[in-house]
Design goal:
The complex is a heterodimer of chains A (about 475) and B (about 190).
Chain A lengths: L7 H11 L2 H22 L3 H16 L2 H14 L3 E5 L2 H15 L3 E4 L3 H6 L1 H7 L3 E4 L2 H9 L15 H12 L7 H18 L2 E4 L3 E3 L4 E6 L3 H5 L5 E7 L3 E2 L5 H12 L7 E5 L13 E7 L3 H6 L14 H4 L4 H4 L10 H12 L16 H5 L6 H14 L5 H14 L2 H13 L11 H5 L42
Parallel strand pairs in A: 1-10, 2-3, 2-4, 4-7, 5-8, 7-10
Antiparallel strand pairs in A: 5-6, 6-9
Chain B lengths: L1 H12 L24 H11 L3 E5 L2 H11 L6 E3 L21 E5 L2 E3 L4 E5 L12 E7 L3 E2 L2 H5 L9 E5 L4 E2 L7 E2 L6 E7 L1
Parallel strand pairs in B: 1-11, 2-3, 3-6, 4-7, 6-11
Antiparallel strand pairs in B: 4-5, 5-8, 9-10
The chains are: A alpha/beta (about 475), B alpha/beta (about 190).
Amino acid sequence: MDPRSAHYPRLARETLEQTPGVRDAVTQAALAFDAHRLRAYGEVDVDAWRRWAEQVKSHVLTHLDTYLEQAEARLVEHGAHVHWADDAAAARRVLDELVSRYGVSRVVKGKSMVSEELGLNDHLASQDVEAVESDLGEYIIQLLDEPPSHILGPAIHRTLDDIRRIFHEVHGTAPEATPEELCAAARSTLREVFLSADMGITGGNFVVAETGTLALIENEGNIRISTSAPRVHVAFVGIEKLLPRWSDLAVFLQLTARAATGQPVGTFVSLLHGPARDDEPDGPDEVHVVFVDNGRSRVLADPDAWEALRCLRCGACLNVCPVYRQTGGHAYGYVYSGPIGAVLAPGLLGLSETLPLPFASSLCGACAEACPVRIPIPELLLAWRRRAVDEGLTPRAERAAFRAFSAVATRPGLYRAAGRLVAATGGRMARYLPVLGSWESVRAPLDPSGGTVRRGPRHGGAAQPSDSDQTGAPGSEVEPAP
Amino acid sequence: MRDDVLARVRAALAGRERFPHPGASPSTARVTPEPGDVVDRFAASFQAAGGEVVRLPDVQRARQWVATFAAELTGVAQSPLLPPALRVEVPDAPPEQAELGVSLALHAVAETGSLLLSSAEGRLLQLLPPTHLVWVPVDRVRDTLAEALGTEAPADVSALALHSGPSKSADIGRIVVTGVHGPARVIAAVVG
């Protein structure tokens, strides 16, 4: 994906001007996800889980070389092939070689953020290889030729009517088709793809170094089929996705699901150990795991930003973010959006290429409270802002605004007072919070819930799920993935 | 390439604080304990995830129940690992054509409402038929996911899977639809 993060204010404005329904669609979906998370967090001793998970991920990241070597050795023992990619171009070259080696003409894909990061779909198309997304949300946005707007629900910015229209065009379903009828049309098309594809491509939620286990979490079953039916499975996995021990999995699987959708665990979890054994009835003959750096080792070297590498890609920080909810993910101009995108993108792509993103936050702190691995996102945002000012990357006015803002933001009482003031003035004050002004000018007020930004709907009544999703509103996939 | 990635990681970590592993994972017990014994709790959580549960006191009753359940079917994909007594008396069909897939769970998990399945019985019979029947001998029901996964990964199978209710998605207008790709019905038949 070509990053367009430098244009955040314009992209945000365009989203709100050109697709006014997006704000409501994203807000409703995000608030429903967040209500499920809050309930699910409350059922267990979640603070103990989060502290432990933070420590496990910090341990693995500060011993990453050792664990990568151990994971590689175990994967090879299982009969899998391991590849390494410095950057997106190198990852695409690995894929080219595998496509050529196995004579692949059709690929079925499971939802993977890292695949978006590497631009695999466009690349495969340019090589005359058909790549079909099999996650329902990804399939929808592939039909619409759009990038995902949320880690979990790639199509949450699209309404039922939008989807009815595109399915009517493509599949000939009735203009008033029910979600079940739309789903059935996608199912029958994709079933044929699963059974005819030469290769399945996925990301990975975890790789357990001790056992060489590739773990994948989802709700639809498309990843299980993509890793079982085609004769070749290729997984692109960021180098930060490791877990040390098999015994770490049980809590990480449950914590990821509770943070992402509020489920006790994803509907389907695959724990994969290489190609099918000789006595097994089915499963892939060849399994390839591609460890992708693509800027991660640079983030790891950063004494502040490295903590963002703990991210499980659950999407909890997006759901809880009053800024993300205004536009959805597209305005961020990169595959990772919302609060985690605003701290990861500058690290992966460089600060000058992504400059406005660290300012696309009210620093309300809700993201840090929601994060299952306790990434201190507001502190990281402030660190990036400070660097932008120090490096003279921000215009003078923004520098002044930032100084004023950070003076307020570092005094919690004052900041909360400022937040209330923003609400009280119907958003007019928002222009003094850098970047927030860009969407305030299109549609006031700052906070859709009517509460203050900081208190937000998390403590108010706006976060009730609708009747339609009270069973747990699964997203398409609980992928921290990528 | 491999050595370049590892060299950059090592350079990134040079002189940095190394954090220890915190050790055993925290308790996953619910703040408010769920009522009932372990089988009751599995049944409640599996049903909450959209699954169906049948309790059968012994193999004899299990055979009677499944004979009725499968009476109308013409093709079934069955795990080769099923004990003969639990095989369904319906002609075999490949998973992509079968009306029913039949598995034997390694474990059932109460805290997550999950069935732990092995690739040794075939993966596609667990995924492609519209209905999936999973036999669960009652002594295989575990309280926690950690107990079900055990202390080490099994060395002799290529894939373990947890299935917690039917395939579902809320990607269309946030309305939950079941049976997206995998089975629309999953039935855990607890025997004993």
